[in-house]
Design brief:
Blueprint lengths: L1 H19 L6 H23 L5 H27 L12 H23 L6 H23 L6
Helix pairs in contact: 1-2, 1-3, 1-4, 2-3, 4-5
Amino acid sequence: MAIAMVNLFSYPVVWSFFPSLEPFQILLGRYFGISSFIVSLLYGLIMYGRRKDSSKKIIFVSLLTFIGLNITGGFIALWFGYGNRLPIAEGIPYRFTMPISEVFAVVYEAWLIATLSLGQLTLKQSGILSLITNATSLIFGLILFGTSFLT
């Protein structure tokens, strides 16, 4: 269950924040990306503070946090980014954002899984689990979509 909760917050960062840093992104997309990154960091801090709670309470707080922070972040992104439709030409190339997003996912998920496992998994065990799941996802995605991060 902890892995599912962690993925609720890491997935939007990998798929919206890091791509929003690439060239030719609209301002609204960049603000949504920044919003997802801030939401994931706040969630990590909230869960670290509640790491001793029962699993039912952690799930409840996770879902409330996910809904509340994403609605708030979405409104803030819309407030600041609405209306500008011209893409921003500057940005970081995909060959840099993709590997950085994968490193973020592994580190963030490992830390949160270790935190939410209530001492059942060490940081090293959580890191190995996170590395295996994210590497599998990356390899499957590259095979399925035929994308190379060098392009």
